[in-house]
Specification:
heterodimer; A: Rna Polymerase Sigma Factor, Chain: A; 2 domains; B: 2 domains; 13 helices; rod-shaped; disordered C terminus
């Protein structure tokens, strides 16, 4: 019984550490998610990688220096895990340079905390509902059914180029709408 | 949005899709490193990409668009739907002259069958209860009221029916007296719709739906002559005895 006590304490400490790590991951979920999307494009592999990153962060949590920001540290782990996964699946990474990616990561961090992201999600949902039927159909195919541009182009009988133009406009319209809504919420 | 900006955003989409060309990637890399606005725009696009997927996964938005499988409709719903389809079909196929007759004959036959079954049901009910529906079937009698009236089956009703149908007889007499006749009904009734076919294809289905009331209710007018009932009703029969006295 006595010999088990230290092991039990250690176990409790590990659990507490993991909880803390996962809490941080959740707080930065949107940033990590968006960042990883810039590295892993395959939807299934992306989901797996996101889970792997959360686990890797939890395992590495004891080495995290709390005096430093979580974002850059987590992104470094995410980048490493993502590249490992791509390599394991024989996928050649198509990446921006390390500096550019990190700059994007910082920009993502600046877009807001978990609360701000939730507000943004709400605004985005409302804005999406305001899209035309055709645009919503494209959004559905791309983001709900995880279809590639090529597949969507085939299904709607458009050229891939025309599809990029359409999505460019959709994103712009959504972005403008979200900004307007966020401004209104800020008062 | 200028052409350059549009191309830049397109390059961003290409990058997120993983279909960016090496030269394009090089340009994008340079822009992201040096241009804060472009960097922010790219970050927002990446975030929007992630959040749209989240919104999609939540499916709330998409459920609004996609009609979810509804619970199986009740029998009546299905029936009314079939009726609607039956109604529309002739309209759609109206231009095809060869199909018209067969459609109309089929619909007319269905209408007649329906009318016959309804009449049968009414007559069956009539035997048990002396109510309005009974009078509607009576127009058959007008041809020989005097001879038919005598039957003493239902003393209280018979006079009333005879009275009601009598005034109506003149109007519907030529066409309708035949229809109600028990067995010949089917044959004569079939001829009726055949005559009405030429009108319009839509009339037929309508007729099909309303037939029970229109064809079997020649007596709807009896509502007017009804006032005449009081004078001839039983109350008057009692007086004679005093005369005899």
């Amino acid at each position: 019984m006595d010999t088990d006590a230290p092991a039990l304490d250690q176990q409790r400490a590990t659990v507490a550490s993991h909880e803390e790590a996962f809490r941080e991951v959740l707080a930065h979920w949107a940033m990590l998610n968006a960042y990883l999307r810039g590295i892993v494009r395959n939807p299934q592999l992306f989901e797996d990688t996101l889970s792997d990153v959360a686990l890797a962060i939890a395992r590495s949590w004891p080495t995290f220096d709390r005096a430093r920001p979580f974002g850059p540290w987590a992104r470094a782990i995410a980048r490493r895990v993502a590249l490992e996964n791509l390599s394991r699946h024989g996928i050649k990474p198509i990446l921006l340079g390390k500096t550019a990616l990190e700059a994007l990561g910082e920009e993502l961090d600046a877009l807001g905390d978990a609360m701000a992201v939730e507000t943004r999600v709400g605004a985005l949902r409302q804005c999406t509902e305001q899209l035309s039927e055709g645009s919503r159909q494209l959004v559905r195919l791309r983001y709900f059914e995880n279809r590639s541009y090529k597949e969507i182009a085939e299904s709607v009988h458009w050229t891939v180029d025309a599809l990029y133009v359409a999505f460019n406009r959709i994103h712009k319209a959504l972005s403008d709408c979200v900004h307007r809504r966020l401004e209104v919420l800020k008062g | 949005m200028t052409r350059k900006e549009e191309q830049l955003r397109k390059a961003m989409l290409h990058y997120l899709e993983g279909s960016i060309h090496p030269e394009e990637l090089e340009v994008l890399n340079r822009v992201v490193e040096t241009d804060p606005d472009a960097r922010r725009e790219m970050a927002e696009l990446m975030l929007q990409d992630a959040l749209l997927t989240k919104v999609g996964q939540e499916t709330e938005f998409f459920e609004l668009d996609d009609p979810r499988p509804m619970p199986p409709p009740s029998v009546s719903c299905r029936t009314s739907r079939i009726m609607k389809i039956t109604r529309r079909a002739p309209i759609v196929e109206a231009p095809a002259p060869s199909k018209r007759p067969s459609w109309k004959v089929a619909i007319a036959a269905a209408a007649v069958l329906f009318a016959v079954s309804l009449a049968t049901a009414v007559s069956v009910l009539q035997s048990g209860s002396p109510e309005g529906p009974v009078t509607t079937v009576q127009p058959i009698v007008p041809s020989a009221p005097a001879a038919a009236a005598p039957p003493e089956e239902m003393p209280a009703e018979v006079p009333a029916k005879a009275v009601v149908s009598a005034p109506e007889a003149p109007k519907p007499a030529p066409a309708k007296p035949k229809a109600p006749v028990a067995k010949p009904k089917t044959s004569t009734a079939r001829q009726e719709p055949a005559e009405s076919r030429p009108s319009t294809s839509t009339n037929v289905p309508d007729g099909f739906l309303t037939l029970p009331s229109s064809s079997k209710l020649p007596p709807p007018s009896p509502s007017k002559p009804a006032p005449k009932l009081p004078p001839k009703t039983p109350p008057k029969t009692p007086p004679p005895p005093p005369d005899k006295k």
